Each structure stands twice: as C-alpha cells, then as structure tokens.
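Hey Z.,

So I finally got round to the iron/sulfur cluster thing we talked about over coffee. Here's the setup:
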Amino acid sequence: MEKLEHKFLKEYNYELGAVDKGYTNRTLYINVGTHEIKEKPVTSLMKDKFIGGKGFGLYYLWQAVTESTKWDDPENEIIISSGPIGGITQYPGSGKSLVVTLSPLTNMPIDSNAGGYFGPFLKFAGFDALELQGKAEKDVLIFIDGTKGTITIEEMPGGGVDTHILGEQLTEKYADNEEDKRNIAVISTGTAAEHTNIGLLNFTFYDVRRKGIRLKQAGRGGIGTVFRDKHIKALVIKCAGVKGDLNHPVDKLTLNKTGIKLHKEMHDLDNSQNQMRKIGTANIISIMDQYDLLPTHNYKFGAHKDTFKISPEVFISKVTQNSPDGCWHGCSMACAKAADHFELKTGPYKGQKVTIDGPEYENAAGLGSNCGIFDPDVILELNFYCDTYGIDTISYATLTAFVMECYENGILNKERTGGLELNFGNIEANFELIHQMAKGEGFGKIAGLGIRKMKEIFAKEYGADPQFLFDIGMEQKGLEFSEYLPKESLAQQGGYGLTNKGPQHDEAWLIFMDMVNNQIPTFEDKAEALHYYPMFRTWFGLNGLCKLPWNDIAPADNKLTDEPAKIPEHVQNYVDIFNAVTGKTIDKFELIRQSERVYNFQRIFNIRMGFGKRIHDKLPYRAMGPVTVEEYQSREERYDQQLKELLGYDTTGKTTEEKIKVLREYREDQYEKLTDAVYKRRGWTMDGVPTVEKLRELGMDLPELLEVVEKHR
Amino acid sequence: MKLLAKDESLCIGCGECEAVCSKTYFKEISPEKSCIRVGDQKIQVCTQCGECIDVCSVAAISRDKNGVVRINKKLCVGCFMCVGFCPELAMKMHGDLLEPFKCIACGQCAKICPTHAIHISEEA
Amino acid sequence: MIKLNNRDCEWHEGLTVEELLRLKNYTYPRIVVSVNAVIVPEEAYASTVIEDGDKVEAIHLMAGG
Ligand code: SF4
Ligand code: SF4
Ligand code: SF4
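And the result:
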C-alpha cells in the first residue's frame, strides 16, 4: 500500500462535551478554503422547528447561500447531521447521516441519507452537525478525533481517490490497531465524481466479522461532485466506546423494550414477509416484474422475459455471507448485503478480488432491466464501479437508459458517442461509458452531465426534437428518476412529481395502494396519501432514521388495525423512542407537524432559488403513459380498454397515434387535477407556494420565509 | 458442552434459583436480574445453542473452551438484537444495565435447587 | 361477477381465494385478503370458496419501496 503523505494546515482543539437527550447542543463549522474552524451553539429555535438531520442541514444551507449562489460557488455548503434519535443502538435503523447541499443537477437543495458510522460518531465526538464551506486550493483531508477533541485539516495531494482503496487506507492509517478499526468512519468519493454531476459520497463502517470496510452511499443529487469541487478528499472521524446510552436519553428502558420488540418481530416474521435479512431490498425484483412495474428499456415497459436471470434467488447465491449486516448497530433488519471475493473483469482494477456492497433493488433494476442488461455479474461489477468511482447508481442507470434510447432512435450514433454502440443490453459499451466517466473522457463526460444537460446538447447540437427528448428523458427538476414504473398509478406520478428534491420515491410509494388495492380512488384520497406519506417519511430524515424498518416488517396483527398501510404500531414506536430520547411528549399528529415545518421550509427554499413552483412539478410523459407506438402496442389491450371505459372513446378503426394522443390528453389532465388536490391539501396556492396562513398555523411564519412567499404570491 | 440442564416436571417454582443467580452476579435479590426464570412448571434458561453468536454484528458473543456462550461486555454495544433473536427467550435485558446477560452455566442455582430440577450437564 | 378491490372481476363456480390470487398474478408475499370484510388467514386460502357477488379485498401492504 502506498504511503499517504499529509501536511498539516490547521489544528483545532475543543472540549469533548456530552450528549444530552439526543443533542450535543453544538455544531461544527469548517471552511476548507480559509481553514477557519468554529463551534456554534444549537438554538432552541433549531431544535423546536428543525429537529435535526436534514432539518439542520437546510437551516444552515439557507443561511450560507443567496438566491444567486451556484453549486460550485465557495459559499455552497455540505452539511452532515444525524438527528436526535441518531446513534441509539437499540432500535433498528437508527444510524443514518443526512447530507444537504446545493445540487449540481437541480441547482437547489438536495438531501440524501447514508448508513455507515459517520453521523453517530460525529454526535458522540461532540457535534449535532458539520458544516463544510469554502474551497481548498489543494486536496485536503479533515480528521476529527472524538477521543481526544482535536480537529485537523491536512493537505493530501496525489494518491488515488477511489473509495474502495482510499477508505481502506485511511481506516488503516487512523486506527491504532485492528481492534481500533471499528472506531473509524470515513467519508469519501471517487474519480468520476470530479468529472460528472452525479457524484456521491461513500460512508464507511468497519465490518469486524469480515475484517474490511463496507460502503454505504449518500447517492442522490451530486453531493460527491460538490465534495470534490471543494477539493475535499476525505473526512475521517474517530470515536470509541459506543454504548446504548451515549445519547443520554431520558428513558433508556423504553428504548430497550421498543427495540427488543422489533428485533423479535424480525426474528419471528421476516422470513415469511420480506426476507430483508436474507436478500435485502433486492427481494422485490421479481415482484415488480410480475406487476409490470420493473423499469425496462428506459421505462418503456414494466416487465421483461429475462428478469428471472436477475431474480432475488440469483443474487442470494452471489452474496456469500450468511451473517446479515446492518449499516449501524442494532439494525436487525440488516439489509446491507455484500458479495465477497468478486473478481473484476474490466477497468483499472481488473483482476482484483473485491467485496461489493449491494445489490439493492434500485441497482439491480436500474443497471439491469432498465438498460436491458440481465447478467447478474455485470450488474454487480457496474455497481462496484459506481460506488468506488463515486457516482450515483440511480442517476447513472437512468441516464444510461436514456442514452441507449437516444442511440436506438438515431439521435446518437457511433460518431457522436466516439464509437460506443450504446444499444440496450450492450454490456461492453456500458462498461466503457463508466470508465470514461472516471477518466473524464469521451462521451462519458457528456453523459455524466445528467439527462437535463444532455437534452439541451442533443437538441442544440444534433437537432433532436426537444419534445421527444422531454418525453423520454426521465428526469424532473434535473434529477434522474428512481427505478419504479409509475405509468399506471396516478398517485405515484404525484409521488415522483410533487416532491421537493426531484423524482425520488423516498417521499411516497403508493403504487400498490393506488393501482392494485384501489384504496385511494378519488383525487382527495390520493392527495391525502400524498400529504401523509411524504410528511411521515420526511420525519426519518429529521431524526437520523432509516425508513425500511418502518414498513419492511409488520407486526403479526397489523392486518387487523384500522390503517394497515401506515403500520400503526411502528408509528407509535417512533413516537415512543423520540420521546424516550428527547424527553418531549409528542404524539403521532405532532410528528407530522414536525415534518410539515421542514417540508414547507424546503419548498420555500426551492422557490427562493428560482424553482419549486407548479411548472417545476411537471413530469416527462414517459412517466405517465405510452410515448411511442411501440409502447402503446405492447399494452394495447389495457390502453384500449381504458379509453373505452374511462372516456367512452370508440377505438375501432383508430390509428395508434390517434389513440396515444387521446390517452395522453386524458392522463395529463388527470395529473393537473391531482396537482390541484395535493396543493390544496398541503396548504399551498395553485402555483405551489405555501400560504401565509399555512406557515402561521405551523408556527413557521419566520420573516425570511414570509418574505419569499409574499414575493411569489 | 457445559450447560444447565433442566427437568421441568420437578420444578415447584420456589424461585430459589432466581434469587441466588441475581445475588451472585448483581449483588441483589431480584428475579428481573436473574439469568434463569421459573414459573408455571416452566424453566427458562439458556441452552447454549449459540444462535446469538451469529446475530451479534460486533462479534461480542462467543463460545468459551467449555462450550459456554459468553458475552464480552467491552465489545457489546447494547443493541439487544441477541435478546430478540434468542429462541429460548433466555437472553435477558434490564434497564439498569447497558449489556444483556445470560446463563453461563456456573451451577450456583443447581446447588440450591431443592428438587434437583436443574443440574449442570457436561455431555458433548 | 364479484368485486375485487372495489372493481368488477370475473367469477366462476368454486373459485377459491388461492385460485383468485393466482389468476390475478398477485404474487406479493404480504397481501391481506378479506371476503365480505372478514379476513381470511393464509392457511385458509385454498379452502375458502368465493361466492358470486362477494366483495373481496386483496390489500398489498406496501407503502414503502
Ligand atoms: S434497514 Fe438496511 S439501510 Fe436501513 S438501517 Fe438497517 S441495514 Fe441500514
Ligand atoms: S442466549 Fe439464547 S440464543 Fe444464546 S446460546 Fe443461550 S439459548 Fe441460545
Ligand atoms: S446486545 Fe451486545 S452481545 Fe447482544 S447482539 Fe448487541 S452487541 Fe452483541
């Protein structure tokens, strides 16, 4: 292993302090350009209205930037924060770090969460959040030693940046011995983050059973790109002696009991429910295919005859471990899977045997079926390179699928791609594309800009039809779609379209409720779901929690409850653990209000940056219905029937083009009506701006927010 | 393998075992802090099956040379996954303690049991 | 004709819950089935016969993803 040379630029000492009821009541600010380091107090306004995690991130980012700040201005910040519950070891899914920055893809705030130990360690080292601002001249590394109370900024020129190597090297370097490695957590990215807009951050944790680092990603929105633009190579933190009471909760017994209750559920029921411990989120690949929801060939179709080749069973056989892993202590859901001793077949690390974290559902669906690839080893290797090169698998997959459709349509050709034959299913070209992104060369450099920029380029340079590009380019607000096919579910179109950060299903996944169960038939029903679920799920991000243990397991008697989809017992668990940590006395309604405050704040932040209005909530038609004749005809019976039943439209003798047009008008109109209903339910104007009354009602009538909404009334 | 074997039909539920266990390890008489629990002709105690070993993600649980499953408190982070996953419900939690606790087959309770419902077995 | 999730659905004599789920290709592992508002446990899928005009719900529990 090469030796890492570091030159110290700045050293800072601080009092270690203690956590009190989930908060250290202090945050850390580091400017990598000026080397200024300071501590800031956490105010009661911050705790009351922003809670923590992504709430703190948005709060600080608002203060750091102005309307005209761009992602690559030095003022832009990256804020990392866990949240008051973050770091407890008793309840599954309590170790997430939330990262917030201005995104190079959307030019507005993005938030993304990651497992790994950094967030909890940061708190135990003494800080509720870390703000990174400025731009370093040369590559730097920041080391926070939470065992001693020192922070150093070190110059670190040269050497590799790809995470699977750097993460290991740094863990080695900063640990005193093998035993100490569990006390180190690293954040870094990879070479492709420097050359694309889709860079991600890798968060490590040391796996004591495997004796190696594991990687978890804050993937969405190009945060890794900002990280490298600031010339930060890595953040390293050290923290020893993790125990169940480091948050100094007011009621540890409740945490223990609530956690054990869920562990027991996992033990008794996971095998007959989602098999998260065995397969993780990849369990749903086949199911999505069977329900015609698996994105295939750039979201044209929802199923493929070869899906069995990448079924969960195939991946189980690849994942060599038999000990399920969580991404933080106490996660008995343990969805963190890995394939060991995987020999790479391409690229600079060809021949190396590596451990590959994953595959998660999104990776398998995106890198696989959406690009027409049904080879599990190829999916694993692409997954590995996305991670170590530091790019977001979802954006990579979705933009590659877009490029492939453009290639098959003649918008791109061999000349324009520099020789890459980017047909659906072309494995070789796909690998070449990702390696080009890492080198910042060739067509990879263009593709790495993201779909939004590519659409502009293809229209301008190649004369492609902008409408067609808009229809098939699966991005909204600049962010690439995640991997579900929302065509047949209006509510899910809302779940993708009416979001704060872009089409990411982490706000709401309503496809079954809507399309299959028919539980939310009216616009009002859908609007209620598109209010409740996004708010409920926002709350995880305020507290450092993972969403999966909420509903990827359910108590045995859940089906007998009044609202099984909400998993009422688990909602109560969250209320209980929040109160047990913080000593507050919220109920399930206040929980939603806590989220609403931050959700509306983020919406207004978007508006302040020039986005976040109705026009920005429009969707590409590929997300709503069949764009092409090929698509329509593949599900002709279904669409014809809908035209007859819903519109009384007589399809006999009509051409496919005519039918597409009528169906499109209908579906687009439905989406507009849904938008009306959702805005109304959320307390927004018909242009999507939160009303003053709504802000008052929530206690969010802060002057800086009122100023923005008044301007956009 | 050394373990505390039981014959539930002999148990009269007197609770002597619970008392001596909690006294030995926690210096107080409290059934809540006993590694063995009795009642209703049921004796709940670790069978040393070892399932909890794999559940622990920080490798804090292991088998000692006598085959007894033991917790290394220094490594334990108090997640209590092992408690939820124990098929015998014999891994225990108490609010005063940061780590779980379990029977280590020391035999103190067997010595005091008036009906010989429990004894130390050393069979392979 | 029966109602399945409040939509019309074909029916035939002797249709069981198990068969209905198979016909609809409902393969998701966490489905809660009720016939006329009475929940049918999984063990009884094969033996529960659906009558003409019954109201059947097959609720897929997933608001996740
Ligand atoms: S469910 Fe998975 S992602 Fe969530 S906390 Fe557990 S291991 Fe991490
Ligand atoms: S505590 Fe439970 S799981 Fe562990 S060895 Fe004893 S009986 Fe088995
Ligand atoms: S409570 Fe301690 S011994 Fe039990 S699984 Fe957690 S870390 Fe391991």
